[in-house]
Every structure is written in structure tokens, then in C-alpha cells.
Amino acid sequence: MEKLYVALNKQVANLSVLFTKLHHFHWYVSGPNFYPLHAKFEEFYDEVNELYDAFAERLLMIGGQPVSNLKGYLAVTSLKEASGDEKAADMIGHILDDMKLLVTEFKEALFLAQEKGEETTADMLIGAIASFEKHVWMLSSTLK
To answer: Would you give per-residue pLDDT tens digits along the chain (144 residues)?
Structure first.
């Protein structure tokens, strides 16, 4: 189970960092697409917040201990924080890259969950993968 704990903990950290990055983008986006991007970034951070809480609670339910402070998140995450000088298209690109990476890592965690017979955890990951794959498609289409 230790590998599954580590994989889920990484996603708790990733989702926390992504949540913060999405808030930053939500607040600082500007330009002709301000309104739709401002609203979309809010939709994303609402979804990410739900996943963040669900993954942390699931980790507790199966005997793990989720990281729960900023120092810990930054030590474990595979994502980068926002730099603060992104333009709207850069923001979309960063979110796209983050979601692609999360899909890959969710799939790795899914394999571990299925290997351990953790079907509830697997179900959570499958739902997150499906949602993020759709976001990847939509964000990719936006940048064309």
C-alpha cells in the first residue's frame, strides 16, 4: 500500500498547487478573453478543490496520511507554481500542461489502486482522468 499512499499524496500536493495556480490565473487574467477565461478558471478551481479534498480523505480512509501544509505540498508536487507574469495564452498552456501531467500520474495511481484491489480509489481516479482528459481536449482546441 505504501506506493499507493505515495502516489495519492503526490496528487493531494499537485491538486493543492493547481488550485492556487488557478486562483492566481483567475485573478490576473486580462485581455479580450477575460470574461470567459475568468469564469473557466473558477470552474476549474472549484473542480480541483473537490478532488483535492476527496483524494486527501480517501488517503486517510485507507490508512495513509495526506500532506497538509504548503511546505509539504511544494516538496511533493510535480507541478510548478505560477510565475506571475503569464499572459492569457500562457495561462491556458500552463493549465494544459499541468492537466496532461496529472492525467499521466492519475493513471499511474490507478494501476497501483487496481493492483491493491482498491476499487473505490480506482473509481475516483477514473472519474478524475475522464474529466481532465476532456479539459485537455478543450484547452488544446482553444490554443489552435
So the answer is: 899 999 999 999 999 999 999 999 999 999 999 999 999 999 999 999 999 999 999 999 999 999 999 999 999 999 999 998 999 999 999 999 999 999 999 999 999 999 999 999 999 999 999 999 999 999 999 998
List of residues 6+ apart from 50 with CB closer than 8 A: none
User: What is the CA angle 123-103-34, rounded to 5?
Assistant: 115
CATH 1.20.210.10 given to domain 2-142: no
Closest of 19, 21, 25 to residue 37, by C-alpha: 25
Domain ranges for the chain: 2-142
C-alpha cell belonging to residue 24: 492566481
Q: Calculate ∠ Cα 94-98-100, nearest 5°.
A: 120
Whether this model's pTM surpasses 0.70: yes
